[in-house]
Amino acid sequence: MGTMYTDKEHLERCKIVRDKLLKGTIGAITIDTNIFTETGYSLEHGHFKQLEQFKGNKFNLIFSDVILMEVLGHLSENSVSAKQSLSSALRLASKSWGFDRARNQIILDELMSNRSPESIASDRLKDFQKRTDYQLIESKPRVDTTELLRRYFQKLPPFEKSKDKKAEFPDAIALLSLNEWALEKGKEVLVVTKDNGWHQFCDEDNKLFSINDLGIALTLIQERDQQSATQCSQISSLISAGQYPLLLDAIETAIADDIWSINWEVDADSSYYFDFELQNVEVISADFEKDGTTIELWAVDYREGQLVAQAGIHLEIAIECQFDFEIKDGVDRDMVPAGSSTVAQRQVVEVEVLLTFSDLESELPRFVEAEVVPSRRYIHLGLVEPDYGDQNPEDERY
């Protein structure tokens, strides 16, 4: 699977999981909170939308009640923050555009359907349950307190020696309850997590087996059906042969239309203190990641005659970012403005897209749509300094 793998340890875990999936011993999947965080809690798009394949499926999608409580908490926090940002934007718009501020609350209520941020978060999680039919694993009847405390005092996974162990009690409760459920059902569970303590727990003689990428997990599950892998290979060859001349244009458009589903994390170097605002990210071009000359596609879902495949994309973007600088006054130690600048750069980043195809029995399956996978991407803009132009930086305004 090319560049999707990162290290030898992860490769070994993926091999173990793949073998167990093909043998049929793994019969369920669960996902840690940090995977939700990585995708910006985008339950309706990307990989989390593909979890709908497990509704009515003998392969179970399961979640510990601990994880779902954490997810609901983060959804609520994000919803509150979004409301505050929207309110601020409306106040700025009313000031800049001169419309009546009384309309702000009317617009806000209309967009939120007169619901509180907390109720919106709760409704999103309920909708996610309805779409995926996930199974809730209750921890109370499944966690042995003696085993929980033994792990805590003996510093056994998921409790880590270098961290605040008390903060890891929720992780321990979640893992113990999931492992007990697996024992009850006589099946093994695929765990998707980026937490080292979780990986260490799963590496023990348990019923849980972990990898750190949800896209890879879905691909490995699809590999149980060799037909999906074969179809991906055939479509990949057709793309390489130029049979989909408009495909990259469609991918560029899909990414451009949903560019803010990617959480762009900006950093820079400067001798000044600074705040920044990422003003624009524009798609310049897109091309497939390749293993040599081969375009790699991975099946992540196959339902109702449609194949959803994941592809890696080299994406060239133009970035525009506004920086406001400050320095510390040498006398009273207050922070004082030191100017601003706008930084514009082009960079290449790697993103993933989901490609849907239908009419799979035909010689040329029909391309249906492209969707960018919500994710985080890091952008470093190098050294940034105030741009004074023709003005004197010693002016009292600076």
Kindly describe this structure:
By secondary structure, this protein is α/β, with parallel strands linked by helices. It has 2 domains: 2-222; 226-383, no CATH class. It is 39% helix and 30% strand. The chain is built from 12 helices and 14 strands. The chain has helices spanning 8-23, 33-38, 46-50, 65-97, 102-111, 117-132, 145-153, 169-185, 196-203, 214-222, 226-240, 247-257; strands spanning 26-31, 60-64, 135-137, 188-192, 208-211, 262-269, 273-288, 290-291, 294-295, 297-303, 306-328, 335-358, 366-372, 375-383. The strands form 4 sheets. It has a 5-stranded parallel β-sheet. Strands 7, 10, 11, 12 and 13 form a 5-stranded antiparallel β-sheet that branches. A hairpin with a 6-residue loop joins strand 11 and strand 12. Helix 1 (8-23) runs parallel beside helix 10 (214-222). The longest helix is centred in the N-terminal third of the chain and has 33 residues, at 65-97. It is globular and about 65 Å long. The N and C termini lie far apart (53 Å). Mean pLDDT is 88; it is low at 1-5.
Separation of termini? 53 Å
> In terms of per-residue confidence, which ranges show pLDDT below 50 for 5 or more consecutive residues?
1-5
How many helices in DSSP terms? 12
Domain module count: 2
Order of helices and strands: HEHHEHHHEHHEHEHHHEEEEEEEEE
- Portion of residues in beta strands equals 25-35%
Radius of gyration computed on alpha carbons: 25 Å
Query: How many beta-strand elements?
Result: 14
Shape: globular
Helical amount: 25-40%
Main sheet makeup = 5 strands, parallel
How would you write the strand order of the largest sheet? 3-2-1-4-5
Mean pLDDT over the full residue set: 88
What structural category characterises the helix and strand content? Answer: alpha/beta
